[in-house]
Amino acid sequence: MIKELEMLHPFSGKKIKITRTNSLDAIARSVCADKTLIECDKIVKMANYVYKKQMRKIIDNCNRIINRNWLYNTKLKILVTGHGAKLIKNALHSEKIGEIIDDMAVFENSENATAIALSMLLAEKYNN
C-alpha cells in the first residue's frame, strides 16, 4: 500500500495525500479525463474492473506455476513480499491456494526475502 504522502502530483511532482478525491482524480487522468468528464461511480467501476482483472491474472499465473511444479494436493507454503503483497494475499486467500506465510519477522532483511525463502526451500529439500 502506498503511504499517505508517497503519491506524487502528476503535474507538480510534489507529494500529495492519498484521499478518495485524489485517487478518483488519478484514475480519471489515466484515461485522459477528470471528474467533470466521468462520474465518480464510473471511476469506481473502472478501478474495480482493473482490480478484478489483476486478481484473475495473479490466480491464473499461480495456478499455472503450481500445476507445472507440484503434485496435485500438495500443501504449499507461499511467502508473499513486495509492493503487491496485499493484492497477492487477497488473490491467494480468495482461491485458497496454499498457506500464506505472513510473518516477515522471520527474515532479518525483508528486502532479500525472496532469496532467503529460496535458500530455505533448498536447505529443506536437501536436509530431508
Keywords summarizing the entry:
two-stranded parallel ribbon, mainly alpha, two-stranded antiparallel ribbon, 128 residues, elongated
Explain what you see.
With 128 residues, this protein is mainly α. The chain has a domain at 39-127. It has helices at 20-29, 40-69, 85-95, 113-127; strands at residues 7-8, 15-16, 77-79, 99-101. The longest helix is centred in the middle third of the chain and has 30 residues, at 40-69.
Shape: elongated
Give the CA-CA distance, first to last residue: 38 Å
Count every helix, treating DSSP H or I runs of 4 or more residues as helices: 4
The tally of strands reads: 4
The helix/strand class is: mainly alpha
In percent, how helical is the residue content? 40-55%
Largest sheet: 2 strands, antiparallel
What is this structure, in a nutshell?
This protein has four helices and four strands. Strand 3, helix 3 and strand 4 form a beta-alpha-beta unit.
Write the layout of secondary structure elements.
Blueprint: E1 7-8, E2 15-16, H1 20-29, H2 40-69, E3 77-79, H3 85-95, E4 99-101, H4 113-127
Parallel strand pairs: 3-4
Antiparallel strand pairs: 1-2
Helix pairs in contact: 2-3
